[in-house]
Each structure stands twice: as structure tokens, then as C-alpha cells.
Amino acid sequence: MSSQIDHLLNETRRFAPSAEFAANAVADASLYERAAADREGFWADQARELHWHTPFTTVLDWSNPPFAEWFADGELNVAYNCLDRHVEAGNGDRIALRWEGEPGDRRNVTYAELTDEVKRLSNVLLDLGVERGDRVAIYLPMIPEAIASMLAVARIGAVHSVVFGGFSADSLRARIDDAGAKLVITADGGWRKGKVSPLKPAVDQALADRNGSGIQETVEHVLVIKRGENDVEWTDDRDIWWHDVVPQASSDHEAEAFPAENPLFILYTSGTTGKPKGILHTSGGYLTQAAFTNRVVHDVHPETDVYWCTADIGWITGHTYVAYGPLANGATQLLFEGTPDTPHPGRWWELIQNHGVTIFYTAPTAIRSFMKIGRDVPQGFDLSSLRLLGSVGEPINPEAWVWYRDIIGGDRAPIVDTWWQTETGAIMISALPGVTETKPGSAQVPLPGISVDVVDDAGEHVGHGNGGLLVITEPWPSMLRGIWGDPERFVETYWKKFADKGYYFAGDGARLDDDGDVWLLGRVDDVMNVSGHRLSTAEIESALVGHEGVAEAAVVGASDETTGQAVVAFVIIKSRYMKKNGVDGLGDVLRRWVGEQIGPIARPRDVYIVGELPKTRSGKIMRRLLRDVAEGREVGDTTTLADTAVMSVISAQVK
Ligand code: WTA
Fold first, then answer.
1. What is the pTM of this model?
2. Which letter does DSSP use for residue 363 in this model?
3. Nearest residue by C-alpha to atom 22 in ligand 1
């Protein structure tokens, strides 16, 4: 990490906002002053931008930390705020979703049409016995029905748990079981890389006979959208085609008001153990910060902009900046089903050109892979509509930042590098476009109303020019309200480390520069960040040892030019298995195995078969040393190992 820090220290380029951008920007510097003078009053003002069926009289209740309540005596309906409100204001004809499927099929969905669809679906969900507080799993491709599903669940006060369509049947099952979902909404399949990728079979498999598992089936129905037109198996009393029930349903549905702290969704994310955590978000505070940040950070002008966030709804970025933020603001957005390189490497740039995209929000991994392909691909398209670029999910290196600005942004569009997490619910650290002079590679400053610090192990501020751990020092509206079913883990994971200070521990290393701006340096725990997706080392290790041939496994995130980090596995093979099967091709077998167990994103880049793993005397695997090997560096200090010779053996085996 030290070479990375040195490199960042040398970054002195600065980009001041243009006068033209500043003149029309949603944000202005007075937001900081207002928030500094009265933080809670500032957030109350932002919350009042929403429609409250019952106005709140209290802002923050922090009497039982770390369990916060925001706007607790207010009542609202999240879907009403994202839909009906715009229709009632006369904007029903505005396009909410400019959807394009991977094969190039298109559909525009207006706010009036989306509202209508969500009302029908709400009635269907109620008919299927889904009640307030029930959980609904959503396992869908990026189609308008996915957004409608999230909103309909929210509209009736139920709780959605969206599972990324790239996750395996096993991962889906674990999430369905943990949440106790009553209904699953899925599709036959979706388009991915030029062909239909089936989804329904994974749901069938996840719900198949759990003989001896001891887990009770909670799912009563599976609602299936026809998208891929692939053949699917059918369970008559369980499965229902969307097209048999939704179009026929009544579009009369009045949005009921729910308390601000009514749970809105659970989203599973990787932690430091093998079991994903169900991050719980609630309604009023979440929607307040989602809408506010989308407005000021993405500079959304709903009447004129075409906004595009490339994230899948299976991730938090897709929740906050595809579903909730832009719709709460009444924006028009592009929704795209496919991948960046199908059917040609310029697909994204073609979409920007054809849809006149003005605001573009994506991940550094994508930018780096475009850099690798070369500038002539984007330069073959007209990208002059773009006026703001955003980055999210992992640190963006200054070279990628500058390339993004030059080649995609025409050296004109400002870049906002936005730091946040599934747990924070919405953006926390970012430049404000039109206000902040930007620095390539730095997320820079906490947003108005947000307080962060970089501290040492004892929780003391490190001072400008120093590195340490990133903490959030005050509660914020869209903060997670807990881990589903596990309040102890919530306290333990985020609040215990700096309990005496009451700080939230983010798990990220960071440095403050001489101006006090924040530079993110990556995770300090056993969480990896591969292409902006969070993966846990423990989760992949447990998948590996689930294979009959594997005795032990250690997984590390090694730095990778394109994906940020890559999964590298070191495995010890059972001698009996080795005698019987040999090791030829075993690396590939294990890579595939992990892909099947968790999902293709978790597939290791490299699998090394070794005789031993480096362990301390207390038996803890020293991943730091394995990372040295995986990154081709000289191995660091081995003196705390139980057997100091083991690393030279491993290095030789890897070579
Ligand atoms: C990392 C994604 C540097 C960080 C929204 C964090 C970032 C984790 C940035 C959360 C950024 C996210 N610069 N690192 N702009 N944005 N991260 O939960 O390590 O999928 O802890 O949320 O991504 O990942 P998650």
C-alpha cells in the first residue's frame, strides 16, 4: 500500500468548476454553511422535499445508539413519492425509464405508466397474501418490471430483498432463507452477452426439496415475468405468470402511509465471515438522503437531463441511484439490460449517443477496461451530451480519472468520485459539482450534513497529511438500521471498535491530505473489492473447502490492473483425492466450482495448489504473506509464523 500512497501524494492536478456549470448547478456552497450551523435542521429541510402523509415533528432520535431513528413520528409512502406525486404534479407524461434490452429492443415508460403498473402489481401482491412487513425476494434482469417490483413491494409496506441475477441458486437460497421470503419475483431468463441466461431454474433449484436441511420453506409463490422466452419448468400451485395476473389487475390502489422507520429493504453484502449480512434500510431517512444526494451530487435537472447509472439493481448503487433517488426526483433515466461489450465494445457509448445521456455514473473497473481497449472506441461516438460523470465502488486511480475526464467527458464534464457503502445507503463523501475544485483520485469532502474523520487505532484524529481508518462520527439519515436477524453482529461489526467515541467504523483505510481532503485506500479487513463488487475471503474459502478434494483454503485479494482486486486462492488438496485424481486441471475445476457455488463474480483468477498455508502459532492464516506471493512481491516479515520456512516452500510451489 505504501507505493500507492506515495503515488497519490504526487498527484497535484486540480480541476476547478467552470463558471457555466456553477451557474446552473443544483448545489451551492451555502449548503455546507446551513448544515454546519444546524445539522438536524438541514436534514429536516431535505426530508420536507418529500411528501409526508403525516409530517414529522422529531428529526433524530439517538437515545439508544447505535440504533437510530429519523423522522420517526412522520408517515410517508416511498412509492407514492417516486410515482403518484409526479403524476399529480402534472408530470405523468415525462419518461421515467428509457429502457433498452440487450438485443436492442426498446421501451419508454412514462411516470403515469409506471404508476399504473405499480398499482396493478400492488393489488396482485395483496391478492397473493403479501402483507406489510413480509419479505419478497426479487431475482430479475434489468427490465422495467424489476423497478416496478421494488416499488410495488415498497408501496404495500412489505420489504424487498433483491438478489443479483448473477448469483447462484445456493446464494439465492441462503438469502431467501435468511430473510424468510414469502414470494419470489423472477423471470424465465434475461439477455446477457448475446444469449438468454436463464433465471427461473435457479429459483426452482433454490426452492427444491430441502430434505434433511431442517429449514422450513417460507416461499408460497413465484411470480414469473416472460423475458427470455426460454423453456421453464412449472410448479402449478406455486408458480404464476406475471402476464396472467398483472395486466388484468385493477389499477386502483391508494398508497397507504407508513411510519418513517418502516423497513424498506434488506440487501445482502459480504462481510468478514462466510455468511453474507442482510443490511436493513428503512423508509423516510433513506429516501431523504437518496433523493438529496442524487439531486446535488449528480446535479439532476429532471426536466432536461437523461441520467444513466450503470449499476445493476442487485447492488446498493442500483437501489439508491437507479430505483429510489432518480425516481424520487422525477428524473428521466436510461435503464439497460446488457453488458458493456455486447454486441460490440462501443455499446455503452452508442447508448449515450442514441439516448442523449447527460449524466453518467459508473465504476472505475469499467473505465479501466475501456482504457485497455483504447480511446478510439469511445471516440467513434458522439458523447457531447454528457455534462457530468460519476465514479463509485472502489478507489479510482488518477490515470483512470483523467482518462475518464478527457476521453469520455471531453475535458469538460466534471467528475464526482463518490464514496459510500451498502451500509451507508447513500453517498457520504464526494465533491459537489459546480462547487468543489476536484482532485483526481480523491473522494475529497463529506457531503453537507455528514461528518467523517480519519483516526488511528485509538480513535484519535490523525491530522492532515496522515493515514488511518475512516470513521463516520455522527448518525446520518440513510444509515443502516441493523443486520437482519442479528443485532449483535451489527454492534460488533460497525460500532464496537470505537465504542467509547460512538464512531461508525467503515472498514476502509484513508488518508487526509494537507487540505484535509479524504483519499480512500481500500479495505483494511478481509473484504475484497473485485470490479467494484464486495466479496468476502471467508465466503470463498468456505465454498472451496466444500469441494470434496480440498482440505484447506486461503483466499486473498491481489491487486489487479483492471478489476482493482482479483481473487487468488491457495488450496491444500486431500492426499487421498490427489492419489486418485491427480492435480491436472484441478485449478480450473475449483474455479468453476466457486462460480457455481456463489456466482461467476466470485470465481478466482488464480488457484494455487500448495502443501501448507502460513499460520501464526494461534492458527490464524497470515493473508498478508499470501498477498505478497500473489502480487509477485518479496515476502514480508515471517517471524510470527509457527513455521518460518513455510513461505519459501509456498513461493517455490507457486512458481
Ligand atoms: C469501496 C458500494 C474508494 C469501499 C457503493 C467501501 C470506494 C466499499 C468508493 C463499499 C470510492 C466505494 N472510493 N472506495 N468512491 N466507493 N468504495 O457496499 O471499500 O458494495 O467500503 O457499496 O466499496 O462497497 P458496497
1. 0.92
2. -
3. 421
